[in-house]
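User: I'm curious what two different proteins look like when written out as structure tokens. Can you demonstrate?

Assistant: Sure. I'll show them one after the other, since each token string lines up with its own sequence. Here's the first protein:
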Amino acid sequence: MAFAVRFLDRRGARTPRDGGRAIRRFLSGIRIMFHGITRLAASGLRYSADLILPPVCVSCATLITHHNMLCPQCWSSLYLISPPVCDRLGIPLPGYDGESPHISVQAVANPPVFSRARAAAHYSGIMRRLIVRFKFEDKHEPLPLFVRLMRQAGRELLSEADLMVPVPLHRLRLLQRRFNQSVLLARGIGRLCGVPVEAMALRRVRRTEAQVGLTQEARQANVAKAFSVHPRYRKSLAGKRIVLIDDVLTTGSTANACATALLDAGAARVDVLAIALVAHGLAEREEEDPGYARFGG
């Protein structure tokens, strides 16, 4: 037998519809209370975890207020890249005025295959040390910092992107290192900005030698035809605006080789986004980095 729960008020008996509304309000209140308890419990767990493992600067280990960040002193030591920059290469152009795109002499003399490049900081000092630890010492604490800086530096590229593709490692290099730093960066950025990542679209089909100490011409020859697009992904890349993700942009040889492979597969445009930029060729990358030559690209 069907029946309805009726609620009484000062005006008399309510209809079953009124009773349904009251039940929904009651359930909504329960959900809000449950979410509040959940947030309070999570906050308590985080506080307990901070007591055991307090947040420290990812560079100097000074106590700070948030995990995976830099202390004020280390932050002030970063050489972040800010406009104006060359629209093609992303290198700083101090003294340039106006908001129209600026093109550097280097870009005019040797135009890159990719359309635009951006980087968050210069590859020097603290940033260089953090990247070396991340890549070669398996220290992933700076990863959230890298992701936020790259998102800020590449906001224009990412706002127009259809896909992100990380620079691949050769399978033997991946086996040795156990992770591809560019894939981790791309996935972190993707979670923040919502741009999908095709981590397996681009392959390094030939193991290349270490680039350290090579001239720009030798670097270009070293990575020539070292990359190809997996046949399975050609259709998904066709006509897409792609942001290529890398850790450090030096002469652009690797980025050019990857962009060539992606454009040959039908991509509409390829931009490049990196953590750091070597603005003066090889000098800063080789200085203070004696172990780098052991790790080819």
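Here's a second, unrelated protein for contrast:
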Amino acid sequence: MRRARERQWVCRRISGFPDGYTLMNPLFAVMRRLVLGLLLIVFSASTAWAGAPVIAAAANLKFALEEIAAAFSHDTRRNVRLIFGSSENLCRQIENGAPFQLFLAADEDSVFRLADAGKTLGRGTLYALGRIAVVVPEGSPLVADSELKDLAAALVDGRLKKFAIANPEHAPYGKRAEEALRHAGLWEKMQDKLVLGENVAQAAQFALSGSAQGGIIAYSLALSPTFPPRSRFALIPQDWHPPLRQRMVLLKNADETAQLFYRYMQQPTARAIMKNHGFTLPGKP
């Protein structure tokens, strides 16, 4: 009898359950199996993600690429990890040895630079053409018009205080915003009004959060589910700036999953998602 009590005391200490729950108790056995099952699920998930390749992508791809990655995982039972930033900053990280396996840029120059430096498998492929849009948040005194006529008027009448774009030195979408403003004859006049984001996603945050009265951002972000419902946008004419040709490339350490995702980006499922997010698609791969 004494040994039985001692065994029950040990079992309670091991299990962490109160009196009456021992390793011999049927209810405890069920709960133990449930806990072990949950631990196995967590361990399996963490193991699957641990070996997932890291994909570096331009900030304008955030919502489209997250949807594509989910579809890819569903279709292939493989995972990828996504890192977003400006194309220039991501390119520099790759040049400095960042362990990315696939690079989806918002331009072509950064991809060609990496290819010329021997960092890539080939020179990649064109996967999308982007657009830019002028956006204004709810309550802004500005009007979103494609030819930026109200922006010009707001400079004259004093309505414009701050206007957000991505930093043209870091982000292709910022460079195209600069070129559109130059086309409208507004670039020099707006220098003291500009708020620069490190990438186009940050510029969108500035433009729509009240930090500025408007901005020029990626059309794909204006179509995103996080775009405030009462904010407004207008597409800027394509001929106001050089085309936003977006190229992707496999890096030299690309594993099988990264290469599979690269091919998946060129397939109907991914292309349809890109189109839904406002991108123009290149010819059939």
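A detail about the second structure: The chain is about 45% helix and 15% strand.
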